[in-house]
Design goal:
heterodimer, A: Alpha-Beta Plaits, four-stranded antiparallel β-sheet, 9 helices, 42 strands, 32% strand, extended, B: mainly beta, 2% helix, WD40/YVTN_repeat-like_dom_sf (chain B), initiation factor (chain B)
Chain lengths: 739, 327
């Protein structure tokens, strides 16, 4: 800096060095452009069409704010034909910088038409990036932190399954030990505030807090990710646990200042949030549907969004009008509009079969997803069930139904069959009857078979991966009475199978295997591997029956001999009641993912009688029982799909004896180990007690002697006196004179 | 195991006791009567009538000659076992909650309730030669114990101490000579409901509303064993012979019973292994809470008295005697 020297003043003003002052008072111009955005990818227009384009843009930016006329600046240049054309971009000046940033957020990526997707950027950003250094500097490499293996529990040597138990305030993850007390894998008090939930493949344990939900997993049970959603009540995972949907009964409130929530102003008032599980990022928020009638209590049927099995789409139904299908992960509405269906009540996605999943994984391209929906009778149109493909939106099959009061859609878990349970009312509207409309989806033209069921259907369930199903029906007059649960209904359970028929042209049809009457059961629990089924009486106040059935039970020789040779074997001969049991106060039943064990539990959420749980094996033998006060929840940890190929599984089946002998050996040694440890403990306890007694007795004897009392007074262990009592009774007396 | 039902009381049972040989069983209930039974067949030997209030407690001496009972009519009565004559009636200001003969049969211990301004007392009376000579109506000793209300008490080994259980779940050793509290230990969270001595009185079992029963050494008041159940306990007894078991019983509070089923009320006698602290079995039958349990001195049978007004006498099956824990 040049010193100001009075004696040596420059002659001209230009000679004075102002650099120091300039440096100090330089204006920062950049700030002045914060309210300007650059819009790219505009169509090229000439003067004549310029006004039209500006009008159009004004419409698009309407939500952002008013733009004055002279705030559109579009540079033009002469093209090779000498015509003055725009260059395809434009500057727009907004009133405030906030409007500009909102414009970037809302309009960037807007599809104007097929070839023009608008790119909106801040003018200052353009400036900033144009001054980026040419030379590339590699960013410092972040040290790789290995994440824990989320599926480590599957590597358990004994192939045990895990379960989580929530009791009072404690959450415990336990190994199922069959007959022994379950072994604790991890436990933590106050882990959750309301309840717990596993992700569908078992990788994450979800805990609920007022702030949101947290996901835990890995061997050390560390917190993996948390999602901020105040007062979250319900969650739902996508089938491959890539996305998480959360719902809170309180609409999101975005704080005006110091916004540390992941939500922006556009999320205000929404109740449903979709998250990316892996990155923890917020993908989109949705409002809850408005209640059908003003003032009506809003009801939530969860899940609101149903995921297609490929995880590419999720959809929700607006009862009466439409199904909205969204794409993942872009979260955009498919084809930008909902599918309008008058009167639609409900829909279900068709599950994918194992083969389809494999094929999709191999090619990386999934075929269209399929969904089924139904509409009730509207005016002259009959009720109808429709199969629709997504995203193609072609209607694959429809079926008209008459006199329908309600429908329920049940997909078999491989997507082979769709059963529509139809409740009908008779003309006098007093009695109801049900029947089953079964769509055989894999066959050509999708034939529909009607299975008439005279009684009302209480429960229906497909055998997983099977061609059989079970229904529980009732004709009990109490069924329609106003107080359900007050009386235990008399029910009957029927099993059906798909009769393939003989030869090629005979029609396939579903036939009854057997109907079991005079039951009280009201729920069906199939083993996840099929074949075994538990029929249970839940929600009753007096009956807690559990019945374990096997549908492929090899009949005894004698029974098999009764089947006429050459004739079709009677499937009913293979249906066998394995055992029946009772679990007092049972409220929940769940099969473990391997289909070997069943857990029945009595939760304090429903009643306070003998809360606790019991573990049964598939044969209906009770293995372990524990009563826990304030017991709330027991959930098995789900397993992901097996990695073994079909051949490998077949191979194992074939050599089952070899494998099983190894495991039986392990079981034996484990049980003898446990009992030997237990025995040592017992021996020690007994010894301790004996020693203590010896000491105390000696002390007592010496005290007694000191007092001068006799020992005899208290130690007269005389032999018990046996008193034989002879009772003679005169039954009859007669006098006879002997001649 | 088929129980014998003794249906001699009209109201809920309060205490039952076997005599020393175990051939007789004495039961008292809220219906004012003391009953004596043959334990092997449940035949009633006789009754002791005279109380005009609920009888809370009964005890018999080691020679089965004298019987003492305490009642809510503010009296304790001494009876001749053989003929049912009332030999003496002591009058108090309040109800008598517990009576017990001392080990040498020369004294009896009584607990009177605190009520209407009268403090709780522990009183000791001499009954030496009570069968032949008139008994003094004046107590040998009156102890005014400090601290929370005493609910149960018993003589310790050699009558050296009195063990008292209090409402707050603590037990105290009281010197019968001086009336001083020698030591105290809070072993339960809630009120003590029963306290029964082992045969030689060197340890005892307590039951409490806190759903647990405990074995405690008399001299040190140290807890040796704990048996945790899922229901409030009203009584606990130690099996003197045959098996190292204890029997505990209770159930939901009587006032809540009408609202629940008998199963849920948990009105069962539970058998626990005394030393290993493991439950070995249960005996069901009562349809009200179990108020009192007594075990035959030979360990051949046990009896339970319930709020339902029945005494159930169970004679053990053969496999009970051959049962062995795997060790």
């Amino acid at each position: 800096m040049a010193r100001f020297d009075l004696n040596n003043l420059p002659e001209h003003e230009e000679d004075i060095d102002f650099s120091d002052i300039e440096e100090r008072y330089q204006l920062s111009f950049e700030e002045g452009f914060d309210n300007i955005v650059v819009v790219d990818n505009l169509p090229l227009v000439d003067d004549t069409k310029q006004e039209k384009l500006i009008q159009f843009l004004r419409k698009i930016f309407k939500n952002v704010g008013e733009i004055r006329d002279n705030h559109f600046t579009m540079p033009k240049a002469q093209n090779e034909k000498g015509k003055l054309m725009s260059k395809g971009f434009m500057f727009i000046e907004f009133e405030t910088a906030e409007q500009a940033s909102l414009a970037v957020k809302l309009i960037d990526g807007f599809k104007m038409d097929k070839s023009h997707t608008l790119a909106v950027n801040r003018f200052t950003d353009v400036e900033k990036y144009s001054t980026v250094e040419e030379q590339f500097h590699a960013p410092a490499e972040e040290e790789f932190i290995e994440k824990e293996h989320l599926k480590s529990w599957l590597a358990d040597e004994l192939g045990r399954d895990q379960m989580v138990i929530y009791r009072h305030n404690d959450v415990q993850v336990l190994w199922n030990m069959q007959k022994e007390q379950p072994q604790i894998a991890h436990s933590k008090p106050n882990w959750t505030e309301t309840y717990i939930q596993w992700s569908p493949l078992g990788s994450y344990l979800t805990t609920f807090h007022t702030q949101g939900v947290a996901l835990w997993g890995g061997e050390s049970w560390k917190k993996i990710v948390r999602f901020f959603h105040p007062d979250v009540k319900l969650i739902d995972y996508s089938p491959n646990e890539r996305y998480l949907v959360t719902w809170s009964n309180k609409p999101i409130v975005v704080p005006e200042e110091n916004n540390e929530t992941p939500f922006g102003p556009e999320d205000e008032g929404n109740q449903i949030v979709i998250w990316d599980v892996k990155s923890g990022a917020l993908l989109r928020t949705f409002p809850s549907l408005a209640p059908p009638a003003a003032g009506a209590r809003p009801t939530v049927s969860w899940p609101v969004f149903k995921w297609s099995p490929s995880e590419r789409y999720f959809a929700r139904v607006t009862p009466g009008s439409q199904i909205s299908v969204y794409e993942a992960p872009s979260m955009g509405l498919l084809n930008k509009k909902s599918i309008k269906i008058d009167g639609v009540v409900d829909f279900e996605w068709a599950p994918l079969s194992a083969a389809e999943k494999e094929a999709a994984a191999k090619t990386g391209r999934a075929k269209d997803d399929l969904l089924a929906y139904w509409t009730p009778e509207v005016d002259n149109q009959p009720a109808r069930v429709t199969l629709l493909s997504v995203p193609g939106q072609t209607i694959i099959r429809t079926k008209n139904l008459f006199n329908v009061s309600d429908c329920k859609l049940h997909w078999q878990n491989q997507g082979d069959f769709l059963c529509v349970k139809v409740d009908r009312v008779t003309k006098n509207k007093k009695q109801t009857s049900s029947n089953l409309e079964i769509f055989r989806v894999r066959e050509k033209d999708i034939p529909v078979e009607v299975v008439e069921v005279k009684e009302s259907i209480l429960a229906f369930a497909w055998e997983p991966k099977g061609e059989r199903f079970a229904v529980i029906t009732t004709s009990d007059p109490n069924f329609t009475s106003a107080t359900p649960g007050s009386t235990t209904l008399k029910t009957s359970a029927s099993f059906y199978y798909l009769d393939k028929g003989k030869g090629k042209d005979t029609l396939q049809s579903f036939k009854v295997i057997k109907t079991l009457t005079g039951k009280s059961c009201n729920t069906i629990f199939w083993s996840p591997k099929g074949r075994n089924v538990v029929l249970a009486t839940l929600r009753s106040q007096t009956v807690w029956d559990l019945e374990f059935y096997d549908l492929d039970f090899e009949p005894l020789e004698s029974a098999a001999a009764k089947v006429p040779t050459g004739g079709e074997k009677d499937p009913a001969a293979y249906l066998q009641l394995l055992a029946s049991g009772e679990h007092y106060g049972v409220t929940d039943i769940e099969w473990d993912p391997s289909g070997r064990f069943v857990a029945t539990s009595a939760s304090v959420w429903r009643h306070t009688m003998e809360n606790g749980y019991q573990i049964w094996d598939f044969k209906g033998q009770m293995l372990y029982k524990e009563s826990l006060e304030k017991f709330k929840q027991l959930v098995w940890r789900p397993r992901p799909k097996t990695l073994l190929s079909k051949e490998q599984i077949k191979n194992i089946r074939k050599n089952l004896r070899e494998y099983s002998s190894r495991f039986e050996e392990m079981d034996r040694s484990a049980s003898s180990q446990v009992s030997s440890a237990e025995r040592t403990r017992r021996r020690e306890l007994l010894e301790e007690w004996a020693n203590w007694r010896k000491r105390v007795e000696a002390d007592l004897a010496s005290d007694r002697a000191a007092l001068g009392q006799q020992l005899a007074a208290n130690t007269d262990d005389e032999e018990a006196e046996e008193v034989d009592e002879w009772i003679e009774e005169v039954i009859d007396e007669k006098e006879e004179i002997v001649a | 195991m088929r129980p014998i039902l003794l249906q001699g009381h009209e109201r809920s049972l309060t205490q039952i006791k076997y005599n020393r040989e175990g051939d007789l069983l004495f039961s008292v209930s809220k219906d004012h009567v003391v009953n004596a039974w043959f334990s092997h067949n449940g035949e009633r030997l006789g009754t002791y009538e005279g109380h005009i209030g609920a009888v809370w407690t009964v005890d018999v001496n080691s020679t089965t000659t004298l019987l003492v009972s305490g009642s809510a009519d503010n009296t304790a009565k001494l009876w001749d076992v053989s003929n049912g004559k009332c030999l003496m009636s002591w009058e108090f200001n309040t109800a008598v909650r517990r009576v017990q003969f001392s080990e040498d049969d020369k004294k009896i211990l009584l607990i009177t309730e605190p009520r209407m301004g009268f403090p709780a007392t522990l009183q000791i009376f001499s009954i030496e030669n009570g069968l032949t000579e008139p008994v003094s109506s004046e107590p040998l000793e009156v102890i005014h114990p400090q601290g929370p209300k005493i609910t149960v008490a018993a003589w310790g080994a050699l009558d050296k101490y009195i063990v008292a259980g209090r409402e707050n779940g603590s037990v105290a050793l009281i010197d019968p000579q001086t009336g001083e509290c020698v030591s105290t230990n809070k072993i339960h969270d809630l009120t003590l409901t029963d306290l029964q001595m082992s045969t030689d009185r060197t340890y005892f079992i307590t039951s409490s509303k806190d759903k647990s029963a405990k074995i405690v050494e008399t001299e040190s008041l140290e807890v040796l064993k704990t048996y945790v159940t899922d229901t409030p306990l009203n009584s606990a007894a130690i099996m003197p012979k045959v098996q190292e078991f204890v029997v505990v019983g209770g159930g939901q509070e009587a006032m809540d019973v009408t609202r629940t089923s008998s199963r849920q009320g948990k009105f069962e006698c539970r058998f626990w292994h005394k030393i290993l602290e493991e439950e070995v079995g249960r005996v069901r039958g009562h349809f009200g809470p179990i108020n009192t349990i007594a075990i035959h001195p030979d360990g051949r049978s046990f009896a339970s008295g319930g709020e339902d007004g029945y005494v159930r006498v169970h004679h053990f099956d053969d496999d009970f005697f051959t049962f062995k824990f795997q060790i």
